[in-house]
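testing teh design pipeline on a random one, pls ignore if ur not involved
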């Protein structure tokens, strides 16, 4: 067979027949999760995809578009990268437990675990700690496995038992265990970071350092190369307490101001969810967004506007915890699919096809 030949389209009957078991599993998992949230007294909400700001994280890339007003004027809009801003406005409006299955859009992303348009499951608990989200995740992964009658989550030969108790480890502990690096030695009490100190640590353990690498670049390199390949094998891993500079939407930890109430959930080395104890200080949130956009300008030469409505809503938003889970990835690991497009009913067309 010619290795350069294009694969048959997803709508080809034989290809669809291969994909269909994954898709039926997807529907079963989604229905079960809707039932889970209903039993927990959540209200399911629906948010607009068109937003003034798509989000303000430095390394997220949005799809830009524009609206025409009734008098023909052009107004810039973006497809959201997450329903987060809208969901938090609903918390400010008075909702207390909300869940949302949202189609979200991210540019520059396509591969086995990434797709330009995918489904994000987000949920928020007003007045509850972010540890409650960790317990939600444990129950959700077990429920997903039950719905497709599998004893384990799988990806690329790795396995994770969704019914076993999760491992919970801090980012600093993971850096020490898997990379031999004292991460927090490069983070000051006010959250500021020491790039040169961390660079020296990477060189000491034989890792690459480029002249234009910032602290965040070095942090991400260690995380991707040394930490993530060890997470979520055998059982689920909860990677907790990210440095505050890597948690733009999370509040600082009461235990240690250098770290934030942010965790990520891993199974089989795959990141599944990102949860926070939510930041509600509008001034601090603006400052962090401005830092993120300055970094985006430095690296990519572009920025996104701030959502002033969102910043205004923070003054009314209650203390809350919130989380975003990649629903398609969860379906992949539960059904045994090897690529995200296998669990999407109608994948986005590939450019040039």
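output:
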């Amino acid at each position: 067979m010619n290795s350069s030949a294009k694969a048959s389209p997803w709508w080809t009957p034989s290809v669809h027949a291969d994909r269909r078991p994954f898709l039926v599993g997807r529907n079963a998992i989604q229905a079960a999760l809707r039932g889970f949230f209903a039993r927990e007294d959540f209200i399911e909400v629906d948010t607009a995809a068109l937003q003034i700001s798509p989000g303000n994280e430095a390394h997220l890339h949005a799809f830009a578009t524009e609206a025409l007003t009734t008098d023909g004027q052009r107004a810039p809009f973006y497809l959201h990268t997450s329903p987060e801003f809208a969901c938090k406005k609903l918390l400010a409006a008075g909702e207390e437990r909300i869940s949302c299955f949202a189609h979200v859009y991210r540019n520059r992303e396509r591969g086995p675990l990434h797709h330009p348009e995918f489904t994000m499951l987000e949920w928020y608990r007003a007045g509850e700690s972010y540890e409650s989200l960790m317990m939600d995740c444990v129950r959700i992964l077990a429920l997903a496995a039950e719905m497709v009658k599998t004893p384990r989550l799988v990806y690329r030969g790795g396995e994770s038992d969704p019914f076993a108790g999760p491992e919970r480890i801090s980012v600093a502990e993971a850096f020490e265990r898997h990379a031999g690096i004292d991460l927090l030695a490069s983070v000051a009490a006010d959250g500021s970071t020491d790039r040169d100190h961390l660079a020296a640590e990477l060189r000491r353990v034989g890792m690459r350092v480029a002249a234009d690498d910032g602290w965040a670049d070095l942090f991400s390199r260690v995380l991707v190369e040394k930490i993530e390949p060890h997470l979520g094998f055998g059982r689920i891993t909860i990677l907790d307490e990210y440095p505050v500079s890597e948690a733009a939407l999370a509040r600082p930890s009461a235990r240690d101001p250098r770290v934030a109430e942010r965790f990520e959930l891993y199974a089989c080395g795959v990141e599944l969810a990102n949860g926070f104890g939510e930041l509600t200080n509008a001034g601090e949130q603006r400052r962090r967004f401005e830092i993120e956009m300055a970094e985006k300008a430095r690296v990519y030469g572009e920025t996104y506007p701030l959502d002033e409505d969102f910043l205004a809503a923070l003054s009314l938003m209650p203390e809350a915890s919130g989380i975003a889970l990649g629903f398609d990835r969860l379906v992949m690991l539960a059904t045994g699919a090897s690529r995200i497009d296998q669990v999407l009913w109608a994948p986005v067309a590939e450019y040039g096809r």
